[in-house]
């Protein structure tokens, strides 16, 4: 087997077809919740369509992952690695926005009226529904984030580490640490 084939095997060990399909499903669910939150916004970020940015990246990452699994191309694995890195960064920022919206929501916290008033009761129910939908979207994007990180690790293992001999992870708790003179001798030779 060629070296490129062995590097692809490292990527295929991560079961990219399963995770690619899962990323696409998460992206599609995100689009569905994004449509609901776009037409019935709870906070101002919903009107900006932030749900669609992460959904588009998750769907694109899923499609590229499925293509890399099907075509067995090292170039597609590199493209997957790039899109995973971009996807993880964007999804992390959007997750922070979701957490801020869940923890601090000034629109829904300032509902001051009698609970016996039907209009006030409806406002409280809307606030609870918004928090619930936002919590579901946060869980979905967090799942997409962790899948993106794990698939980026498999992609980096296939692309970034070109050496096939050293596949072991160095352990920090090793008993023998080289002295500074040994390191200097090794560098000079």
From TrEMBL:
Source organism per UniProt: Pogona vitticeps (central bearded dragon)
TM annotation in the entry: 16-40, 52-69, 81-100, 131-154
Keywords, alphabetical: Membrane, Transmembrane, Transmembrane helix
Keyword Transmembrane helix assigned: yes
Superkingdom of origin organism: Eukaryota
Tagged with keyword Transmembrane: yes
InterPro entries, alphabetized: MS4A (IPR030417)
Name the record gives this protein: Membrane-spanning 4-domains subfamily A member 15-like isoform X1
């Amino acid at each position: 087997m060629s070296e490129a084939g062995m590097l692809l095997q490292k990527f295929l060990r991560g079961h990219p077809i399963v995770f690619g399909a899962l990323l696409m499903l998460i992206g599609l669910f995100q689009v569905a919740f994004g449509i609901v939150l776009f037409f019935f916004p709870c906070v101002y970020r919903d009107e900006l369509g932030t749900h669609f940015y992460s959904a588009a990246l998750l769907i694109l990452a899923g499609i590229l992952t499925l293509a890399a699994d099907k075509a067995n191309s090292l170039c597609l694995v590199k493209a997957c690695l790039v899109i995973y890195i971009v996807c993880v960064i964007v999804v992390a920022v959007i997750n922070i926005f979701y957490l801020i919206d869940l923890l601090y929501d000034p629109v829904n916290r300032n509902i001051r009226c009698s609970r016996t008033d039907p209009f006030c009761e409806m406002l409280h129910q809307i606030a609870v529904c918004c928090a619930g939908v936002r919590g579901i979207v946060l869980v979905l994007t967090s799942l997409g984030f962790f899948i993106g990180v794990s698939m980026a690790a498999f992609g980096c293992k296939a692309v970034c580490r070109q050496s096939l001999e050293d596949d072991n992870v160095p352990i920090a708790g090793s008993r023998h640490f080289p002295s500074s003179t040994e390191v200097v001798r090794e560098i000079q030779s």
